[in-house]
Amino acid sequence: MTATLSILSAGPGVTLQDGGRHGYLRYGITAAGPMDPLAHATANRALGNSLGATALEVSLGGVEVTAEGGPLGIALAGGAFRISLDGTPLPAACALTLRPGSSLAVRAGRAGAWTYLAVAGRLDLPATLGATATHTRSGFGGLDGRALRAGDRLAVAEARPGPGDPHALVAPWLVRPAEEIRVVMGPQDDFFAVDQIAAFLAGPWTVTTKGDRMACFLDGTPLTHAKGYNIVSDGIAMGAIQVPGEGWPIVLMADRQSTGGYPKIATVIGPDLGRLAQAQGGTRIRFRAVDRAEAVAARRSEAASLAGTMALEPLIRTDFSAEFLLGRNLIGGVVDGAGAHAP
Protein backbone atom coordinates (compact mmCIF):
# COMPACT_ATOMS: atom_id res chain seq x y z
CA MET A 1 0.00 0.00 0.00
CA THR A 2 1.15 3.55 -0.71
CA ALA A 3 0.24 6.43 1.59
CA THR A 4 1.39 10.03 1.87
CA LEU A 5 2.65 11.96 4.86
CA SER A 6 1.59 15.56 4.38
CA ILE A 7 3.31 18.44 6.18
CA LEU A 8 0.72 20.87 7.56
CA SER A 9 3.26 23.13 9.27
CA ALA A 10 6.96 22.97 10.05
CA GLY A 11 9.26 25.13 12.13
CA PRO A 12 12.88 25.69 11.17
CA GLY A 13 15.22 22.75 11.11
CA VAL A 14 12.82 19.89 10.27
CA THR A 15 14.71 17.62 7.87
CA LEU A 16 14.75 14.10 6.51
CA GLN A 17 17.58 11.97 7.88
CA ASP A 18 18.60 8.38 7.39
CA GLY A 19 21.59 6.75 9.07
CA GLY A 20 24.00 9.04 7.23
CA ARG A 21 26.08 9.30 4.08
CA HIS A 22 29.27 7.41 4.84
CA GLY A 23 32.45 6.87 2.86
CA TYR A 24 32.86 10.31 1.28
CA LEU A 25 34.78 12.26 3.91
CA ARG A 26 37.92 12.21 1.75
CA TYR A 27 35.95 14.14 -0.86
CA GLY A 28 34.88 16.79 1.65
CA ILE A 29 31.38 15.34 2.20
CA THR A 30 30.41 14.61 5.79
CA ALA A 31 27.78 12.07 6.75
CA ALA A 32 24.91 14.31 7.97
CA GLY A 33 22.38 11.86 9.47
CA PRO A 34 20.65 12.21 12.85
CA MET A 35 21.86 14.45 15.65
CA ASP A 36 20.67 11.78 18.10
CA PRO A 37 21.40 8.44 16.41
CA LEU A 38 19.98 6.40 19.29
CA ALA A 39 16.59 8.15 19.27
CA HIS A 40 16.45 7.93 15.46
CA ALA A 41 17.13 4.18 15.59
CA THR A 42 14.60 3.71 18.41
CA ALA A 43 11.75 5.29 16.44
CA ASN A 44 12.53 3.05 13.47
CA ARG A 45 12.93 -0.04 15.63
CA ALA A 46 9.46 0.50 17.13
CA LEU A 47 7.92 0.06 13.68
CA GLY A 48 10.08 -2.83 12.49
CA ASN A 49 12.06 -0.66 10.06
CA SER A 50 15.79 -0.93 9.57
CA LEU A 51 17.55 1.16 12.23
CA GLY A 52 18.91 3.58 9.64
CA ALA A 53 15.67 4.11 7.70
CA THR A 54 14.73 7.64 6.68
CA ALA A 55 12.72 9.55 9.29
CA LEU A 56 11.80 13.15 10.06
CA GLU A 57 14.19 14.90 12.44
CA VAL A 58 12.17 17.55 14.29
CA SER A 59 13.79 20.49 16.04
CA LEU A 60 12.34 22.85 18.66
CA GLY A 61 10.23 24.58 15.99
CA GLY A 62 8.00 21.51 15.80
CA VAL A 63 5.94 20.01 13.00
CA GLU A 64 2.32 19.05 12.26
CA VAL A 65 1.47 16.24 9.85
CA THR A 66 -1.45 14.26 8.50
CA ALA A 67 -1.86 11.10 6.42
CA GLU A 68 -3.39 10.86 2.97
CA GLY A 69 -4.40 7.83 0.93
CA GLY A 70 -4.63 5.44 3.85
CA PRO A 71 -3.68 4.84 7.50
CA LEU A 72 -0.02 5.16 8.34
CA GLY A 73 1.95 3.80 11.29
CA ILE A 74 3.96 6.45 13.13
CA ALA A 75 6.51 6.26 15.95
CA LEU A 76 8.14 9.11 17.83
CA ALA A 77 11.24 9.01 20.03
CA GLY A 78 13.71 11.59 21.26
CA GLY A 79 13.43 14.52 23.65
CA ALA A 80 10.50 15.21 25.96
CA PHE A 81 8.45 16.95 23.27
CA ARG A 82 4.71 17.64 23.51
CA ILE A 83 2.87 15.26 21.20
CA SER A 84 -0.85 15.42 20.43
CA LEU A 85 -3.21 13.57 18.10
CA ASP A 86 -6.22 15.71 17.17
CA GLY A 87 -5.58 17.71 20.33
CA THR A 88 -5.28 14.69 22.64
CA PRO A 89 -1.91 14.59 24.43
CA LEU A 90 0.30 11.54 23.90
CA PRO A 91 3.58 10.43 25.51
CA ALA A 92 6.79 11.87 24.07
CA ALA A 93 7.78 8.36 22.93
CA CYS A 94 4.84 6.60 21.33
CA ALA A 95 3.53 4.62 18.38
CA LEU A 96 0.15 5.06 16.70
CA THR A 97 -1.83 4.86 13.50
CA LEU A 98 -2.30 8.22 11.81
CA ARG A 99 -5.52 8.13 9.83
CA PRO A 100 -6.51 10.44 6.97
CA GLY A 101 -8.16 13.55 8.36
CA SER A 102 -6.34 13.34 11.68
CA SER A 103 -3.42 15.59 12.58
CA LEU A 104 -0.38 14.82 14.68
CA ALA A 105 1.33 17.83 16.27
CA VAL A 106 4.88 17.76 17.63
CA ARG A 107 5.95 20.74 19.74
CA ALA A 108 8.94 21.58 21.95
CA GLY A 109 8.50 20.36 25.51
CA ARG A 110 10.18 20.41 28.89
CA ALA A 111 13.45 18.84 27.75
CA GLY A 112 15.33 17.79 24.65
CA ALA A 113 16.20 19.52 21.40
CA TRP A 114 15.35 16.85 18.81
CA THR A 115 12.78 14.15 18.24
CA TYR A 116 12.29 11.67 15.41
CA LEU A 117 9.12 10.80 13.53
CA ALA A 118 9.41 7.47 11.75
CA VAL A 119 6.81 5.93 9.43
CA ALA A 120 5.85 2.30 8.98
CA GLY A 121 7.07 1.75 5.46
CA ARG A 122 9.66 3.48 3.30
CA LEU A 123 9.78 7.18 2.56
CA ASP A 124 10.08 7.13 -1.23
CA LEU A 125 12.98 9.49 -1.91
CA PRO A 126 15.88 9.39 -4.36
CA ALA A 127 19.25 8.64 -2.77
CA THR A 128 22.14 11.07 -3.17
CA LEU A 129 25.51 9.33 -2.92
CA GLY A 130 23.77 6.32 -1.46
CA ALA A 131 21.77 8.07 1.26
CA THR A 132 18.75 10.32 1.81
CA ALA A 133 20.24 12.31 4.71
CA THR A 134 19.70 16.05 4.25
CA HIS A 135 22.75 18.33 4.39
CA THR A 136 21.18 21.76 4.10
CA ARG A 137 24.47 23.68 3.91
CA SER A 138 25.43 21.67 0.82
CA GLY A 139 21.88 21.61 -0.53
CA PHE A 140 21.55 17.93 -1.25
CA GLY A 141 19.80 14.85 0.13
CA GLY A 142 16.31 14.61 1.61
CA LEU A 143 13.73 16.65 -0.28
CA ASP A 144 15.55 18.95 -2.71
CA GLY A 145 18.37 19.38 -0.19
CA ARG A 146 16.29 21.61 2.10
CA ALA A 147 14.33 21.65 5.33
CA LEU A 148 10.70 20.58 5.14
CA ARG A 149 7.94 23.17 4.97
CA ALA A 150 4.14 23.39 4.92
CA GLY A 151 2.68 21.81 1.80
CA ASP A 152 5.35 19.15 1.33
CA ARG A 153 3.96 15.68 0.60
CA LEU A 154 6.10 12.61 1.24
CA ALA A 155 5.14 9.36 -0.46
CA VAL A 156 5.43 6.27 1.73
CA ALA A 157 5.94 3.00 -0.14
CA GLU A 158 4.90 -0.29 1.46
CA ALA A 159 2.95 1.70 4.06
CA ARG A 160 1.63 -0.19 7.07
CA PRO A 161 -0.67 0.84 9.92
CA GLY A 162 0.62 1.00 13.46
CA PRO A 163 -1.13 -0.01 16.71
CA GLY A 164 -4.91 0.32 16.61
CA ASP A 165 -4.81 2.82 19.48
CA PRO A 166 -1.84 4.98 20.50
CA HIS A 167 0.71 3.13 22.62
CA ALA A 168 3.50 4.44 24.82
CA LEU A 169 6.93 3.35 23.66
CA VAL A 170 8.89 1.95 26.60
CA ALA A 171 12.52 2.86 25.86
CA PRO A 172 14.34 3.60 29.14
CA TRP A 173 17.64 3.98 27.29
CA LEU A 174 16.39 7.34 25.99
CA VAL A 175 16.59 8.79 29.53
CA ARG A 176 20.09 10.25 29.33
CA PRO A 177 20.79 13.28 31.54
CA ALA A 178 23.44 15.45 29.91
CA GLU A 179 25.30 16.44 33.08
CA GLU A 180 28.21 14.12 32.23
CA ILE A 181 29.49 13.55 28.70
CA ARG A 182 32.15 10.89 28.15
CA VAL A 183 35.10 11.67 25.90
CA VAL A 184 38.24 10.02 24.58
CA MET A 185 41.12 12.48 24.89
CA GLY A 186 42.87 13.75 21.76
CA PRO A 187 43.95 13.64 19.08
CA GLN A 188 45.64 16.99 19.84
CA ASP A 189 45.40 17.09 23.64
CA ASP A 190 49.19 17.59 23.65
CA PHE A 191 48.48 21.20 22.61
CA PHE A 192 47.25 21.83 26.16
CA ALA A 193 49.14 21.88 29.46
CA VAL A 194 48.17 19.47 32.25
CA ASP A 195 46.31 22.17 34.18
CA GLN A 196 44.22 23.03 31.09
CA ILE A 197 43.30 19.39 30.55
CA ALA A 198 42.16 19.30 34.18
CA ALA A 199 40.17 22.53 33.69
CA PHE A 200 38.51 21.09 30.57
CA LEU A 201 37.39 18.00 32.48
CA ALA A 202 36.39 19.90 35.64
CA GLY A 203 34.21 22.42 33.80
CA PRO A 204 31.42 23.10 34.18
CA TRP A 205 30.51 24.15 30.65
CA THR A 206 27.22 25.68 29.60
CA VAL A 207 25.57 24.76 26.30
CA THR A 208 24.79 28.02 24.50
CA THR A 209 21.74 28.78 22.39
CA LYS A 210 23.65 29.39 19.14
CA GLY A 211 24.27 25.71 18.37
CA ASP A 212 22.79 23.96 15.35
CA ARG A 213 23.31 20.75 13.37
CA MET A 214 26.87 21.80 12.63
CA ALA A 215 28.16 22.40 16.15
CA CYS A 216 27.44 22.73 19.85
CA PHE A 217 29.06 25.86 21.34
CA LEU A 218 30.10 25.87 24.99
CA ASP A 219 30.61 28.72 27.45
CA GLY A 220 32.78 28.72 30.56
CA THR A 221 36.28 29.66 31.62
CA PRO A 222 38.32 29.82 28.39
CA LEU A 223 41.14 27.34 27.91
CA THR A 224 44.65 28.39 26.89
CA HIS A 225 46.90 26.62 24.42
CA ALA A 226 50.44 25.50 25.16
CA LYS A 227 51.47 25.20 21.49
CA GLY A 228 49.30 27.76 19.75
CA TYR A 229 45.89 27.17 18.25
CA ASN A 230 46.66 26.39 14.61
CA ILE A 231 47.39 22.93 13.24
CA VAL A 232 47.61 21.45 9.77
CA SER A 233 43.97 20.80 8.90
CA ASP A 234 42.93 17.19 9.38
CA GLY A 235 39.71 15.15 9.38
CA ILE A 236 36.83 15.90 11.73
CA ALA A 237 34.81 13.10 13.33
CA MET A 238 31.36 13.76 14.75
CA GLY A 239 31.91 14.67 18.38
CA ALA A 240 35.38 16.18 17.88
CA ILE A 241 35.93 19.07 20.32
CA GLN A 242 37.90 21.92 18.78
CA VAL A 243 39.36 24.71 20.87
CA PRO A 244 39.92 27.85 18.74
CA GLY A 245 41.98 30.83 19.81
CA GLU A 246 39.23 32.29 21.99
CA GLY A 247 39.46 29.20 24.21
CA TRP A 248 35.79 28.11 24.28
CA PRO A 249 35.27 24.51 23.14
CA ILE A 250 33.16 23.74 20.07
CA VAL A 251 31.76 20.22 19.63
CA LEU A 252 31.37 19.36 15.94
CA MET A 253 28.12 17.55 15.16
CA ALA A 254 26.24 15.94 12.26
CA ASP A 255 26.64 18.72 9.65
CA ARG A 256 30.24 19.52 10.62
CA GLN A 257 32.91 20.46 8.12
CA SER A 258 35.14 17.65 6.83
CA THR A 259 38.46 19.12 8.04
CA GLY A 260 39.56 21.71 10.57
CA GLY A 261 42.68 23.56 11.66
CA TYR A 262 42.10 24.04 15.39
CA PRO A 263 43.47 21.53 17.92
CA LYS A 264 40.96 18.96 19.12
CA ILE A 265 41.32 18.38 22.84
CA ALA A 266 38.96 15.37 22.95
CA THR A 267 36.18 13.54 21.12
CA VAL A 268 32.72 12.71 22.48
CA ILE A 269 32.14 8.95 22.33
CA GLY A 270 29.40 7.74 19.98
CA PRO A 271 26.85 6.68 22.62
CA ASP A 272 26.97 10.17 24.20
CA LEU A 273 26.48 12.18 21.00
CA GLY A 274 22.70 12.09 21.38
CA ARG A 275 22.99 12.87 25.08
CA LEU A 276 24.81 16.10 24.18
CA ALA A 277 22.61 16.90 21.16
CA GLN A 278 19.50 16.80 23.36
CA ALA A 279 20.90 19.39 25.79
CA GLN A 280 18.98 22.65 25.40
CA GLY A 281 20.65 26.03 25.73
CA GLY A 282 21.57 26.76 29.34
CA THR A 283 22.31 23.13 30.25
CA ARG A 284 25.47 22.72 32.35
CA ILE A 285 27.70 19.77 31.50
CA ARG A 286 31.01 18.22 32.47
CA PHE A 287 33.26 15.93 30.48
CA ARG A 288 34.69 12.65 31.77
CA ALA A 289 37.65 11.02 30.08
CA VAL A 290 37.31 7.30 29.33
CA ASP A 291 39.59 4.85 27.61
CA ARG A 292 38.86 3.01 24.40
CA ALA A 293 37.67 -0.12 26.21
CA GLU A 294 34.97 1.80 28.11
CA ALA A 295 33.87 3.58 24.94
CA VAL A 296 33.51 0.26 23.11
CA ALA A 297 31.60 -1.25 26.04
CA ALA A 298 29.18 1.69 25.99
CA ARG A 299 28.60 1.19 22.28
CA ARG A 300 27.90 -2.51 22.79
CA SER A 301 25.47 -1.75 25.61
CA GLU A 302 23.62 0.68 23.35
CA ALA A 303 23.41 -1.92 20.59
CA ALA A 304 22.09 -4.52 23.05
CA SER A 305 19.32 -2.15 24.17
CA LEU A 306 18.16 -1.69 20.58
CA ALA A 307 18.34 -5.42 19.86
CA GLY A 308 16.24 -6.37 22.89
CA THR A 309 12.49 -6.48 23.27
CA MET A 310 10.84 -3.09 22.80
CA ALA A 311 7.58 -2.81 24.70
CA LEU A 312 4.55 -0.89 23.46
CA GLU A 313 2.21 -0.15 26.33
CA PRO A 314 -1.43 0.73 25.62
CA LEU A 315 -2.51 4.03 27.06
CA ILE A 316 -5.88 2.56 28.10
CA ARG A 317 -5.47 -0.87 29.68
CA THR A 318 -8.02 -3.58 30.20
CA ASP A 319 -5.53 -6.23 31.40
CA PHE A 320 -4.31 -5.35 34.88
CA SER A 321 -1.92 -8.21 35.56
CA ALA A 322 -0.06 -8.57 38.85
CA GLU A 323 3.16 -7.70 37.05
CA PHE A 324 1.66 -4.46 35.71
CA LEU A 325 0.17 -3.45 39.08
CA LEU A 326 3.33 -4.19 41.04
CA GLY A 327 5.25 -1.95 38.64
CA ARG A 328 3.11 1.08 39.53
CA ASN A 329 2.84 3.32 42.58
CA LEU A 330 -0.87 3.05 43.23
CA ILE A 331 -0.95 5.07 46.47
CA GLY A 332 -1.31 8.80 45.97
CA GLY A 333 -1.90 9.63 49.67
CA VAL A 334 -3.83 8.41 52.69
CA VAL A 335 -6.99 10.21 53.78
CA ASP A 336 -9.31 9.84 56.71
CA GLY A 337 -13.05 9.42 56.43
CA ALA A 338 -13.63 13.17 56.22
CA GLY A 339 -11.36 13.51 53.21
CA ALA A 340 -8.46 15.10 55.08
CA HIS A 341 -4.97 13.65 54.93
CA ALA A 342 -4.33 11.33 57.83
CA PRO A 343 -1.35 12.13 60.07
TrEMBL record:
Segments forming domain Carboxyltransferase: 26-305
Gene Ontology molecular functions: ATP binding; hydrolase activity; lyase activity
InterPro entries given in the database record: CT_A_B, Cyclophilin-like_dom_sf, PxpC
Name of the protein this chain belongs to: Urea amidolyase
Domain of life: Bacteria
Pfam families: CT_A_B (PF02626)
Keywords tagged on the record: ATP-binding, Hydrolase, Lyase, Nucleotide-binding
PANTHER family in alphabetical order: 5-OXOPROLINASE SUBUNIT C
